[in-house]
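User: Good morning. I'm curious how adenosine monophosphate would be positioned relative to this chain. Could you predict the structure with it bound?
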Amino acid sequence: MNVVLLGPPGAGKGTQAQVLSTYFNIPHISTGDMLRGAVKEGSEVGRLAKSYMDRGELVPDEVVVNIVKERIAKSDASGGFMLDGFPRNDKQADKLDEALDTDGKKIDVVLYFKTSPETSIDRLSGRRVCAKCGANFHVKNMPPKKDGICDYCGGKLYQRDDDKIDTIKRRLVVYEKETASLIEYYKNKNILSEVSGDLDVDHLFIELKKLLAKPK
Ligand code: AMP
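Assistant: Good morning! Here's the predicted structure, ligand included:
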């Protein structure tokens, strides 16, 4: 099962992908996580990506498309994958279809997290991420047991630079301008399933499980 998670920043895609990928035993492929990994490593891709990411803009398509093509070609993704944060525009969606088509594959379902701007802003501004394992927390909605410390690995929690309010606003504008058109793109292919991203973590998970269990 090849799945795309679509929705604005702060819709809960990353949090749900973490649990869904374990539940369905398919890898969670997040372009944001891979780019942040490249920034941390200080690789050429990372240096290029950082300036875009810090401003809340999209990293150039060629860079991201190549990263995704390499990742989905790995053996652990042969039985399916869950894409989070990709595609972000029509061109990336076309390139993804092309790459899958070459291997006789396709996207089976697109889960669209319809989310209000208020929810997005609240989630992103309160999000804290583990510097070691990448797990997500939220200061109000999903606080760690011990302040500032990851429940899973004991790593330190930090606030992403692009989760500061000005960059959040920019990311939401970029989503509307570049990404929201993908809702129509996948609706036209008859593979879009909508869910409310405003639901809390547990209810959203229940809804998503139901949608993924349903044959298309
Ligand atoms: P995310 O973690 O998905 O919110 O992504 C964080 C940042 O990484 C975005 O604001 C972009 O700068 C960059 N990014 C992630 N995925 C993509 C993509 N598919 N295309 C272009 N830029 C991306």
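The mean pLDDT is 95. Residues 165-179 form the longest helix (15 residues).
Let me know if you'd like a different ligand tried.
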